[in-house]
């Protein structure tokens, strides 16, 4: 599924209008889609009291249409935040039947508060994709009142009011929905945080925009499930064997950090990799070998800190230039000046695709220009803290602008950035960005495993540079 920003969404709607589809029709269908979801919930839960909060623009117009539909089913009361300005919204306000009570929030404040408190369902149609900055005092107060009703089912129309469409930022008082009905496509606020936390379950509904317009429209992100379904991994031949399914060299682990090496190795083996070569310090060799009996081990000398010694560079370089298809560097590797120099040598000299994770990222954070000198494709997999170190900033800055930070870094340094976290972003050097909307909050500890599964899965039948490009670099 594609993710489009507010400008693209407006252009799509304009193109639809130019093709003969009236905006009136788009608004009608948007309101109907909201009413369809609301009707289903009303019937299932046997609800009788619905409150719809409407704004002055087209989002409010969608709410008026939904109110007209739902009035046939239950008691509907509409609360308007400010004077309605959109001509289409005014038209649909005028079409409301007599049994829908309409109140203006500022002039009938106490009545409005009472209605909100008693509502069994609250539909937010105040602001849509045009919202910027902060909610007005009246709107913030209204949203706060809606939030205080803990039992009502809450539905947002296109976006929760207070969520900024293109950045994922939220204003104080942002509406917190159980469901969000998005029209035509996902918006950035549906997949970026913190706004995604306010959306609840997201349902993308068609409102009549021709599919041909969507196919030719630019988008800023695509969900990974859409890409994977269109680009399935090749099936193994029946005659396949370990020599034809790729070889991964994994430089991981240090004294006290054997778990990171073991998890990454297990992930590689589970994906069907042909041969796994685990390069680990001798102090954890016995532990790792017991957990990974299928792997071939390269036990390495270590320094006084239990970290791989820099003098082992020659052995690692030989393994990398040999039959390795790709390499993983960093899981539990440790940090000191010697290993920093060793990793820099491997990155600058490798002609095989590299996945750099965890301590591998920390080791290059003070010398990130090494990425520009690399001749092979590189995938880096930072969590927000590691990304902050790479750009010399802080976690809050990263989390408040995940899309632009990942995309800009990928473009500047010519690497693929897998910015981990809720809805992991995969940013390619050419500007394309994919978002992984699967998983849950209990999977953070498996981020390395998940990435390694992706990086090694593609080694089934693909050699050299192609092995890392199959998933992350669409053809």
Structure description:
The protein is an alpha/beta fold. The protein has 19 helices and 18 strands. It has helices spanning 6-18, 23-45, 58-70, 87-94, 109-118, 137-148, 188-191, 211-215, 224-230, 258-270, 282-291, 313-321, 337-349, 359-364, 384-391, 395-400, 402-413, 447-457, 466-472; strands at residues 2-3, 49-54, 75-80, 101-104, 121-125, 153-157, 179-183, 201-205, 221-223, 247-251, 275-281, 296-300, 326-329, 354-356, 378-380, 416-419, 424-427, 433-436. An 11-stranded mixed sheet has the order 1-9-18-17-16-15-14-13-10-11-12, sandwiched between helices. Helix 10 (258-270) runs parallel beside helix 18 (447-457). It starts with a strand and ends with a helix.
Write the layout of secondary structure elements.
Layout (H helix, E strand, L loop, with lengths): L1 E2 L2 H13 L4 H23 L3 E6 L3 H13 L4 E6 L6 H8 L6 E4 L4 H10 L2 E5 L11 H12 L4 E5 L21 E5 L4 H4 L9 E5 L5 H5 L5 E3 H7 L16 E5 L6 H13 L4 E7 H10 L4 E5 L12 H9 L4 E4 L7 H13 L4 E3 L2 H6 L13 E3 L3 H8 L3 H6 L1 H12 L2 E4 L4 E4 L5 E4 L10 H11 L8 H7 L3
Parallel strand pairs: 2-3, 2-5, 3-4, 5-6, 6-7, 7-8, 9-18, 10-11, 10-13, 11-12, 13-14, 14-15, 15-16
Antiparallel strand pairs: 1-9, 16-17, 17-18
Helix pairs in contact: 2-3, 3-4, 10-11, 10-18
Quick rundown:
With 475 residues, the protein is an alpha/beta fold.
**Would you report the number of β strands?**
18
Multimeric organization: single chain
Class from helix and strand fractions: alpha/beta
What's the tally of helices?
19
Low-confidence regions: 444-475
Strand content: 15-25%
Largest sheet: 11 strands, mixed
Shape: elongated
Helix content: 40-55%
Overall mean pLDDT = 91
In whole angstroms, how far apart are the ends?
Answer: 18 Å
Strand order of the largest sheet: 1-9-18-17-16-15-14-13-10-11-12
